[in-house]
TrEMBL record:
InterPro entries, per the entry: AAA+_ATPase, ABC_transporter-like_ATP-bd, ABC_transporter_ATP-binding, P-loop_NTPase
Keywords of this entry: ATP-binding, Nucleotide-binding, Transport
Protein's UniProt name: ATP-binding cassette domain-containing protein
Domain ABC transporter: 2-232
Domain of life: Bacteria
GO MF annotation list: ATP binding; ATP hydrolysis activity
Record lineage: Bacteria, Candidatus Dojkabacteria
Family: Belongs to the ABC transporter superfamily.
Listed Pfam families: ABC_tran (PF00005)
């Protein structure tokens, strides 16, 4: 269990993190989201022990930590957005260096950890190559491997799949989901579709404050009980003004391609909306229904609604 209590971090007069509090349990895979400048990276650096808050405290397994608590830092695996890699190091040297930094000396343990992590992150073919010769995707893998090599209890990942091709993304996503079964994993990413796939919980912050915190599925259903329905039909010479006026109460978004009309209708009363669509078709015999489907709210739409009000 990790708990942040009333964490505040200021840079001069700018409040980057404003009285932030939340708890994270073992087995949670958290999507930590927010627009640029919201305080995500600052919070992740505080969690990883890299910077110190102006006020507040971090509690781990019931014990308060401090910036000097090296034992706490050893329990953390942190992958920053910009990997601080030495380009002239071999991948093998980088992993061994990471083990040295975490005071892992036993040769059998070192060999076991490196073998596991090299296979898990797909670094077999580049294990003895200089990091500077690797593609961005492979450098991302090296950064993830360094964060994992000492078998941390808490894994903090900032944009872990950036620069990876689609197949590599799938591999890393599956690895992160598997790691989350026994660890606490906190992920910051701009690829919101991946959060829906990997994370069982989402925390969204804006201007240093939490604006949403809950199970991923519940957040994608939050939108104040509203549902959206996509209604597609064909009709000769569609009268857009008349159509928009008919469906005005559902905030229609209309797109026309020749004689095909696409309308997105939004409501809190799905049955009433369907009744109105049915009535529209019945009273307009030239209308031919093409499709009618409920639209699933995406995490991206929730994110926009909470951070920019759209």
């Amino acid at each position: 269990m990790i708990e942040l209590r009333n964490i505040t971090k200021k840079y001069a007069d700018f409040v980057a993190v404003d009285n932030l509090s939340f708890k994270i349990s073992r087995g949670d895979v958290i999507g930590f989201l927010g627009p640029n400048g919201a305080g995500k990276t600052t919070t992740m650096k505080i969690l990883s022990g890299l910077i110190v808050p102006n006020s507040g405290e971090i509690i781990i397994e019931g014990m308060q930590t401090s910036e000097f608590d090296l034992e706490y830092r050893k329990r953390i695996g942190y992958m920053p957005e910009s990997n601080p890699l030495y380009k002239d190091q071999l991948v093998s040297e980088a992993l061994n260096f990471a083990l040295d930094l975490n005071s892992i000396r036993d040769s059998k343990v070192r060999k076991s950890r490196i073998n596991f992590i090299v296979e898990a992150t797909g670094l077999q073919t580049v294990f003895n190559r200089p990091i500077g010769e690797l593609s961005k995707g492979f450098r991302q893998r090296v950064g993830l491997a360094i964060a994992l090599v000492h078998d941390p209890e808490i894994l903090i990942l900032d944009e872990p799949t950036e620069g990876l091709d689609p197949n590599q993304r799938v591999d890393i996503r599956n690895l992160i989901k598997d790691l989350g079964k026994k660890r606490t994993v906190i992920i910051s990413t701009h690829v919101l579709a991946e959060v829906q796939y990997m994370c069982n919980r989402v925390i969204i912050i804006n201007k240093g404050k939490i604006v949403a915190d809950g199970p991923t599925q519940e957040l994608t259903n939050f939108k104040k009980g509203k549902v959206s329905v996509d209604f597609v039909f064909t009709v000769d010479n569609p009268n857009l003004a008349s159509i928009k006026d008919y469906f005005f109460e559902f905030d229609p978004e209309i797109d026309v391609d020749t004689n095909q009309v696409r309308i997105r209708l939004t409501t809190t009363d799905e049955n009433h909306l369907l009744d109105e669509v049915t009535q529209f078709i019945r009273t307009n015999p030239k209308v031919v229904l093409y499709s009618l489907s409920k639209k699933q709210t995406t995490l991206e739409e929730v994110f926009k609604s909470l951070t920019i009000g759209k």
